[in-house]
Specification:
It comes from Nonomuraea thailandensis. The chain is of the alpha/beta class and 473 residues long. The chain contains 13 helices and eleven strands.
């Protein structure tokens, strides 16, 4: 069943995930590296003995005994080191040696990933940076962005070789809850309301997770954070639209303090987005420049943390903007599980598609035509359109909602496509009632079978459409 669901999702997403024996080779050095910096190419073995490649970037003529930091990417398969070049350059100019590496693609995809595995990759990178000339091995820490905010604490909890932890756009909530909120928040920012956001979107995420197509959905960061003993610097942009910036910091602080760690400092940057880059439009567009003072904060705080002077329980900066609260995304009950949903969809397709197929077979065999029932045609066509169109549209929405793409033309706070699907669903239910009355008066056994199959499909369709919000305002 999981393979079937994965195949369907892969077709809908139009994705292809490459697999490599090693990470793809990087360029001789990061492109666009300023002349005041140097770059040393390195390679190391991550989890499963996978070869990973990266660059160690330092200021030219940097003194010995300098601190170092390993950068851990956010979500994405095989993300190249160049994506974090702005951070690497900025931190190197603050006196750090920065190791940034190409992220793995083996064992990592849209449907598969392991945070502990990524943490092992990061630990291997830390070991490599600790051995670099001029780097003080006792002053090497780890920096994690977004998904890296779940990975970096795992690595820090596993090894005392890590001297400090920096988290940017990190999340203290479960990944499934965070992602469902991010897409819903993106839709609401685009002006969407109603059952599409309140019912259909979170339900689809629950079913996807139940089908094994959302990796690490219920990872709980709190127990991991409680094991982190190193100083922690948390950074969020005020306009973070991917991590709930108001809810996350208090949860993260509570988890650290539960473990007895009060050596944390949280900073919010005005005019900044999820990655603490400047944003001119409230987080919709990311500019290449880091928020003013971000790199300087990292340089200063690392100096304090590695000299035993890390601030305690410090929170500074403007209040973050979070328009809506996150919401629970619990595991599905048996009746709404991925296998049951898949079976229901197949039954609907058979029930609604059987009516025109049977008519076509009669025509091919040149059997006497049966007087068509208009309501039955509406049930057949409407049911197929609502079922297939509804799922296709929902998948489109979750793939674009978090990117703040408006899901088609709008009528008030409802996408016209969703309104049309809702109208079709309502017509299908009404036509089912009419068809049921005609089924009772059917003159032949064949007609009773054809109409009965349609009515059965319509009976299943009604609660199915309610579950997915097609029959709700």
């Amino acid at each position: 069943m999981r393979r079937i669901l994965a195949a369907i999702a892969a077709v809908l997403f139009v994705l292809a995930t490459p697999a490599h024996a090693t990470a793809p080779p990087g360029p001789p050095e990061p492109q666009g590296l300023p002349g005041d910096l140097t770059s040393t190419e390195v390679s190391f073995r991550g989890d499963g003995n996978l070869e990973l490649r990266g660059s160690v970037i330092s200021a030219a003529g940097a003194p010995d005994g300098r601190p170092g930091v390993v950068l851990v990417h956010g979500a994405g398969t095989g993300t190249r080191r160049e994506k974090l070049l702005a951070e690497a350059v900025a931190f190197a100019r603050q006196g750090l040696s920065v190791l940034v590496y190409d992220k793995r693609s083996v064992g990592y995809s849209l449907f598969e990933r392991s945070y502990p595995q990524l943490a092992e990759d990061a630990l291997a990178a830390v070991g490599t940076l600790r051995r670099q000339p001029g780097v003080d091995p006792a002053k090497v820490g780890i920096w994690g962005l977004s998904e890296g905010g779940w990975v970096a604490p795992i690595a820090a909890a596993r090894s005392s070789d890590i001297a400090f932890v920096i988290l940017v756009g990190a999340n203290a909530l479960e990944p499934l809850r965070q992602q469902a909120w991010a897409v819903a928040a993106g839709l609401r920012k685009a002006g969407v309301g109603g059952s599409l956001v309140d019912r259909a979107e979170p339900n689809l995420y629950r079913v996807i997770a139940d089908g094994g197509l959302f990796p690490e959905p219920y990872h709980d960061p709190a127990p991991v954070l409680a094991k982190v003993r190193q100083p922690v610097l948390g950074i969020w942009g005020v306009h973070d639209l991917l991590t709930p910036p108001r809810e996350t910091p208090p949860i993260l602080a509570e988890a650290l303090e539960d473990g007895g760690n009060r050596r944390y400092a949280f900073r919010f940057f005005a005019g900044a987005d999820h990655a603490a880059h400047l944003t001119p439009d409230g987080g919709v567009t990311r500019q290449p420049e880091l928020a003013p003072g971000y790199a300087e904060l990292v340089g200063t705080w690392v100096g304090e943390a590695t000299s035993g002077r890390a601030p305690e329980a410090q929170v500074t900066g403007p209040a973050p903007v979070q328009a809506s609260d996150t919401f629970g995304v619990p595991p599905t009950a048996w009746w709404e599980s991925a296998p049951v949903q898949a079976v229901a969809l197949v039954l609907l397709l058979v029930a609604f598609g059987g009516y025109p197929v049977a008519a076509l077979v009669r025509k091919v065999r040149r059997r006497p035509a049966v007087t068509p029932v208009r309501a039955a045609r509406l049930v057949s066509a409407g049911g197929l359109l609502a079922a297939l169109g509804g799922f296709a549209y929902l998948f489109y929405v979750i793939m674009t909602g978090g990117k703040l793409s408006v899901p088609g033309p709008m009528a008030g706070d409802r996408p016209i496509i969703w309104l049309a699907l809702q109208a079709v669903a309502a017509v299908t239910v009404a036509a089912t009632a009419v068809t049921a009355a005609r089924w009772r008066r059917a003159a032949t056994r064949g007609e009773r079978v054809r109409l009965g199959l349609l009515v059965a499909g319509g009976v299943v369709f009604a609660p199915w459409a309610l579950y997915w919000g097609l029959l709700l305002p």
